[in-house]
Amino acid sequence: MNAEIISIGDELLIGQVINSNQAVIAEKLASVGIRVARMSTVGDSVPEILTTLAEAWKRAQVLIITGGLGPTHDDLTREAVCQFFQSDLVLNPEALEHIRTLFASRGLPVTKNNEDQAYVPRGCSVIQNLHGTAPGYFFQRDDRSMAVLPGVPYEMKEMMETFVIPHFSRKGTGMVIRSKTLRTTGIAESLLAQQIGDISVLFEKDSGVTLAFLPSPTGVRLRISAGAPSLREAERRIAYVEQKIRQKVQKYIYGENNEELEEVVGRILASRQMTIAVAESCTGGILTDRITNISGSSRYFERGFIVYSNESKSTELGVPAEVIVAHGAVSKEVCEAMARGAREKAHTDIGISTTGIAGPTGGTEEKPVGLVWIGYSDKGKTLALRFNFGNDRRRFKERASQAALELVRRMLLKIDS
Amino acid sequence: MNAEIISIGDELLIGQVINSNQAVIAEKLASVGIRVARMSTVGDSVPEILTTLAEAWKRAQVLIITGGLGPTHDDLTREAVCQFFQSDLVLNPEALEHIRTLFASRGLPVTKNNEDQAYVPRGCSVIQNLHGTAPGYFFQRDDRSMAVLPGVPYEMKEMMETFVIPHFSRKGTGMVIRSKTLRTTGIAESLLAQQIGDISVLFEKDSGVTLAFLPSPTGVRLRISAGAPSLREAERRIAYVEQKIRQKVQKYIYGENNEELEEVVGRILASRQMTIAVAESCTGGILTDRITNISGSSRYFERGFIVYSNESKSTELGVPAEVIVAHGAVSKEVCEAMARGAREKAHTDIGISTTGIAGPTGGTEEKPVGLVWIGYSDKGKTLALRFNFGNDRRRFKERASQAALELVRRMLLKIDS
User: B318 lies in which domain range?
Assistant: First the structure.
């Protein structure tokens, strides 16, 4: 079954926005065995949308269209779709109700522009938009389907997941593609590849399994994909390869698929009824931000100290001023004192800390930009490890927070660092 | 002058890679007055490349093609281009020399696959690839041009910058396109549109200026674009519209183009030599994370308290336990006490605070998920404002941190909220 994706928006054609929607949609369609044959992007113009739509409708059985469903004058997708199906607009009461509720919950008056969004092309099924005001439309004509979704990434994604993919999954396409991702951290891509070795010996012969290395600043993901006649068979083929990989690099694998490291660490802490406190200098809040992204984190996260100034390191965490003077704020000694101080002050089981030079300026020969100490303290021991995470400020913060969470994971699971 | 971009690669069609090349190319073409009318993505297949290429060649004067020029069996773009122009391959000695030098400099032997890349379609100009082994091709046929470039982003970008864009710039397209973005926050898209009113009266007649509304969870961006015979004229036309927009919605505009709110607030604080401390409950660190994303923020950011537990609100910030018991942790009273406590404890000019229910669970009828108080305190006054930011935990944190930064901006600039 072939699909095409059409993205609509002038902002894409002038390069203001990178189109991430196409990849998200393509990946989800692949998961139910639908192959994307072509992706197109056109501007907010009824004739251009109509032409592109008509061409794609001739070639593909599945069409996913995103963008141009907003409430303003430059949103023209609904009009083009109406012209294409020679259909007029009808009020969808559920959509109207949803729009009113959304505005009410935010304490805002509904405008006429937004109420107008509840008018949808006659003859479509409405795809409710949990996160926004623009409903989506779903058309089924003989063996062809078309989904029209908003371009806002998280609105689109939720509607793909709750409506479009389940629809095709129920319908069945004769082929199932599954993939599973193993998430690693703390090891470079080339070293990971070396430790895994010859990948051909990981696979059963002709099993149609592939392995992709997907590097990111916080770690390398290993994606195993398999196409098979049944879900069960696809999963069996993936499990075979997964086991082989785990035998070789288990200690670096912290999670699977979309699991973030903060989720894994949070689960361990919650299951052991342990609590944690955080002291951040150079990472400036990203570490506590990540920990508290997890719903229920209040069970184990007690408090955090963002101690940017030297004075705050002393008054909040009891790091002796002499230690800061003797070794500098970016030092093993201060880092350990911060982790211990956070734990003792907050009366938690664990304290973690970061101190370093996030850059892009402020480095010296002895302490270059990118240098960071990551500290850990529990009742039994206190330690700090040294890393260098480069001179891009945001990447530095992401990588340092990942290293701090990974240190907690390894200490809790007693994995050698 | 109209252009089309064609991206080639199976990895794009399965969603493994987000296509950032299109936006890079489009932005560069716009800078020399070339408008991209359509972008297409197809797989590594000669027939599919040929079809897409032939269609685009009929519609556009400029074609930019990327991807599928690598040394392996699944790189088929060169073959498709040869078939399209009915051309064979000829050796390009400079390309061969470059490939050999590149391998020598890395201390690696040249493979036959790589040497083969020096064979290029007869009748093209060769675009040298400084960073890789695949040369690009440039075809000029009557009034039409086609550039074929590798898909590796930094190789492609360098070749666009050193060859393709200078070519069109020299040639002159008679037209320059510029755009400027005004960033707003604290007002819904529909309300913003209402306050701006009839947009046609913003523009001079036939000035070729467009206005786009680009919503995101943290605010709506207004993009003004103008095409004109000269850069100066394009900028004048944009300035005309900008001034009209500012007359209507100035108070919501915090920045321009890629400026983030934390940058704007940081600049005001630094210029006034003022300092700030932060107390976060529900936002869990994202607010300090954003503030410290700015290089040089240590000049004004003193410290932050991530006070997740009730006890920490009292011990760290001096919020009286009775106030928490009487009003609950999510209340105006606690929020104000947090902002004041942070300011006094850190001896800063300003304190800001957040307390709310990030969800997705934990709400009650009186205090629903999404409810948040944002507090501000300086020597003269202390206050807190109430918002609701919905039940998506991450969105909630982003929006609440934006509202906190915006409150600081408005207080510092004495703008009514």
Answer: 261-412
Is the same domain home to A305 and A159?
no
Closest CA to B337 of B349, B357, B323: B323
Number of structural domains chain A divides into: 3
Shared-domain flag, residues B245 and B277: no
Would you call the peptide bond into B135 cis, given omega within 30 degrees of 0 as the criterion? no
User: Is residue A80 classed as helix, strand or coil in its secondary structure?
Assistant: helix
The string of pLDDT tens digits covering residues A361-388 is 888 988 999 999 999 999 999 999 999 9
Beta carbons within 8 Å of A22's beta carbon, 6+ residues apart:
A5, A7, A39, B12, B15, B18, B19, B41
Distance from CA of B135 to the nearest CA of A (A): 25
Query: How is residue A356 annotated by DSSP?
Result: E
**Do A167 and A21 share a structural domain?**
yes
Please say whether the beta carbons of B1 and B61 come within 8 A. yes
Q: Mark whether A109 and A216 lie in a shared domain.
A: no
Q: Which of B145, B171, B197 is the last residue of a domain?
A: B171
- pLDDT value at position B109? 79
Q: Do B262 and B290 contact (CB within 8 A), yes or no? A: yes
Q: Chain B neighbours among A 220-259 (CB < 8 Å)?
A: 223
Q: What is the gyration radius of the CA atoms in chain B, in angstroms? A: 28
Amino acid at A4: E
Residues 387-406 of B with CB under 8 A from A: 387-390, 392-395, 397
A289/B291 touch (CB, cutoff 8 Å), yes or no: no
Instruction: Tell me the average pLDDT across B387-401.
Output: 95
pLDDT on residue B173: 65
Chain B residues inside the 8 Å CB shell of A295? 358-361, 393
Contact call for B15 and A38, based on CB within 8 A: no
User: Any idea what the CATH number is for the domain that residue B145 is in?
Assistant: 3.40.980.10
For residue A417, tell me if it sits in a domain: no
Torsion of CA B247, B249, B252, B254, to 10 degrees: -40
pLDDT at B395 > cutoff 90: yes
Least CB–CB distance from B193: residue in A27, A72, A154: A72
* A126 and A266 both lie in a single domain: no
CA distance A5 to chain B (A): 10
Q: Are residues B265 and B363 in the same domain?
A: yes
Are residue B234 and residue B359 in the same domain, yes or no? no
CATH number at residue A250: 3.30.70.2860
B303 domain-assigned: yes
| Percentage of chain B modeled with pLDDT above 70 | 99
Q: Which residues of B touch A292 (CB under 8 A)?
A: 284-285, 306, 308, 358, 397
Predicted confidence at residue B203, as pLDDT, reads 82
Q: Is B236 exposed, middle or buried (0-12, 13-18, 19+ CB in 10 A)?
A: middle
User: A-contacting residues of B 279-338, CB under 8 Å?
Assistant: 280, 283-293, 295, 297-298, 301-309, 312, 316
Residue B417 lies in a domain: no
- Model confidence at A147, pLDDT cuts 50, 70, 90, reads very high
Domain final residue pick, B193, B223, B256? B256
Q: How many residues does chain A have?
A: 417
CB-based contact, B181 to chain A, within 8 Å: yes
